Amino acid sequence: MTFFDSGAWVGLMTLIGEVTFFLILGMVLAAVALAIIATASITRGKFYLPRILIPGMVLLEGLVKAFCKLLGLDDKDLITFFITLRNTMNTKAFAGTPVEQRAVFLPQCLRSAECPAHLTPEGLKCRRCGRCAVGENSAWLEGLGYRVFIVPGSTFIKRMVKKYRPKAIIGVGCLMEVKDGIDMSDRIGITAIGVVNFKDGCVETVADWAGVRDAALLGIEHPSGAVDFHSPAE
After folding, report:
1. Which residues of 71-96 are buried (b: 16+ CB within 10 A; e: fewer)?
2. Domain ranges (residues) in the chain
3. I need a labelling partner for 222 at 20 to 30 A (CA). Which of 28, 46, 63, 74 fits?
4. Burial 38-69, CB ≥16 within 10 A → b, else e
5. Largest CA distance in the chain
6. What angle do CA 199, 121, 112 make, to 5 degrees?
7. CB of 229 within 8 A of CB of 170?
8. d(CA 181, CA 178)
């Protein structure tokens, strides 16, 4: 009799099978619970168990999305909720970070189609030509003490983060870009606030500049009214 025919081998395989089954069952049940909590939070406009939701949604994102769809939510609703939740959880840490240790990353798609700026190793250098809102708002942000980068993609963001090592950032972009940026920031230990564009696309998109300014003022002064970091794209 070989080892593979022995009772020890059969017992080991049975144990592995049982453990695998219960792990999968546990993941499915956890995903169902997270989907229910997320759905309740979205429909009622209130965060339930946020400290459980965040790691759970990161670990089981695919399963949670699938069950949320069964509960009537689409991906956009869930991603918007995820961004809002992360912004809320990060607000205190962001506000406690000195402004000289913060940075703002703007996507180059915000610029005018007739933009005269040229790409440099640190992104686009705004010429303040007045053809779009980037010049006025980036000047305002720099006046507060922020480093402002106008970048064509995540590669530039990683490069600037590595070079300047900000402790907190504001990321502006479309829904998925903001979500991915917050995920990336978490992985490298940076506090991030995401602001979703009003209008998506590849050319002449429209930022939620009021949301950007409100986020920028966190810890500097209290802006009047509610802060809306996640206005949906039109």
Report:
1. eebeeebbbbbbbbbbbeebbebbbe
2. 3-73, 97-216
3. 46
4. bbebbeeeebeeeeebeebbeebbebbbebbe
5. 84
6. 30
7. no
8. 5
Distance of CA 51 to the CA centre of its chain: 16
One-letter amino acid for residue 48 of the chain: Y
Structure tokens at 128: 């303040």
- Angle at Cα 158 formed by Cα 156 and Cα 160, nearest 5°? 70
Q: Which amino acid is at 53?
A: L
Give the domain 97-216 fold: Rossmann fold (3.40.50)
Q: Is the pTM above the cut of 0.85? A: no
* Per-position pLDDT tens, the chain of length 234: 565 566 777 777 788 888 888 888 888 888 888 888 887 877 777 778 777 877 787 777 788 878 778 878 788 888 888 899 899 989 999 999 999 999 999 999 999 999 999 999 999 999 999 999 999 999 999 999 999 999 988 889 999 999 999 999 999 999 999 999 999 999 999 999 999 999 888 888 999 999 999 999 999 865 444 444 444 433
